[in-house]
Backbone:
């Protein structure tokens, strides 16, 4: 019987599990809530969501759940050695004989690069870049959270839009479509209503990130303020991938690049500008691939951990 593996991609909103054989054939998919321990509220709650996603993957495959040969947990927010040890021990008891734990960035890299080396860029609610060299060395940049970092993320775009909107309302900044777009999106009557909406509604980073499409829409419509915000975001994301490339000492040859997250997947304006910014600074990234299912990278890592090589699959830009 062909051994089975599990890939788990877990973040601050969803956890996705994919059951596959060692040839990479997908047998079942399962989804549950957040498995980032900070977002889930506790480590135990995160484990419960992983277990539920795995249970649903087996159910989708119409197979009785059992311990599989290997599993890869690509979980954001699990960076400390003691957390990984706890998750590994739990996984061996409940999920698989062999457990590989990695961050969500390296899962994206495995899903979107031909030979599992290069740079991965995530720009969703948050933003971070990850890289892996041929010799296994890894590096990261970004991912500091919306208060002190995450430049180029959806939350950052949303906050930049709010600042531009309030400056336009005061006459301190240029007029911009963003003011009307935000008021309409949040169903507010006048600019002063923004104060209560922002400070008294318990907004989280994901709520600010929902404003990002407004920035991109206005930029595509030629709004100069939105165009500047989009350009700044693109340059910041280029900074992140270049920082990773430098730390891993990638040379002048083209560097494989995997992209994911709503900011990068939903429109090409940010993608095109960040690649142009990187090229202007002497860095060529190719092939560039869009990763719509990072869980495929977790499956790939799980398969390779049992000694079988498999090519990643994703959409080429």
Residues:
């Amino acid at each position: 019987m062909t051994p089975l593996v599990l890939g788990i991609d877990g973040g601050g909103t969803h956890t996705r599990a994919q059951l596959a054989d060692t040839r990479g054939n997908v047998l079942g998919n399962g989804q549950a809530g957040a498995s980032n321990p900070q977002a889930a509220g506790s480590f135990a709650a995160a484990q419960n969501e992983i277990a539920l996603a795995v249970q649903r993957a087996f159910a989708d495959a119409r197979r009785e759940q059992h311990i599989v040969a290997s599993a890869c947990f690509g979980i954001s927010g699990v960076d400390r050695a003691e957390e990984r040890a706890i998750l590994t021990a739990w996984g061996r008891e409940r999920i698989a004989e062999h457990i590989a734990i990695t961050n969500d960035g390296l899962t994206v890299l495995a899903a979107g690069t031909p030979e599992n080396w290069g740079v991965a860029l995530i720009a969703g609610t948050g933003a971070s870049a990850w890289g892996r060299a041929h010799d296994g060395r890894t590096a990261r940049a970004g991912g500091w959270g919306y208060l002190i970092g995450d430049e180029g993320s959806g939350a950052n775009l949303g906050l930049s839009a709010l600042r531009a909107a309030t400056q336009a309302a005061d006459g301190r900044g240029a007029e911009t479509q963003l003011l009307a777009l935000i008021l309409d999106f949040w169903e507010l009557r006048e600019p002063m209503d923004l104060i209560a909406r922002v400070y008294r509604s318990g907004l989280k980073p994901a709520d600010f990130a929902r404003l990002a499409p407004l920035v991109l829409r206005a930029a595509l419509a030629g709004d100069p303020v939105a165009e500047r915000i989009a350009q700044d975001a693109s340059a910041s994301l280029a900074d992140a991938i270049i920082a990773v490339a430098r730390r891993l000492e990638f040379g002048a040859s083209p560097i494989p690049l995997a992209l994911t997250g709503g900011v990068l997947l939903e429109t090409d304006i940010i993608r095109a500008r960040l690649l142009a910014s990187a090229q202007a600074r002497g860095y060529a990234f190719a092939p560039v691939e869009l990763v719509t299912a990072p869980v495929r990278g977790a499956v790939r890592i799980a398969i390779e951990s049992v000694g079988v090589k498999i090519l990643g699959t994703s959409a080429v830009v």
User: Anything to note?
Assistant: The CA atoms of residues 78 and 84 lie 7 Å apart. Residues 311-317 have pLDDT under 50 and may be disordered. The two ends are 37 Å apart (CA to CA).
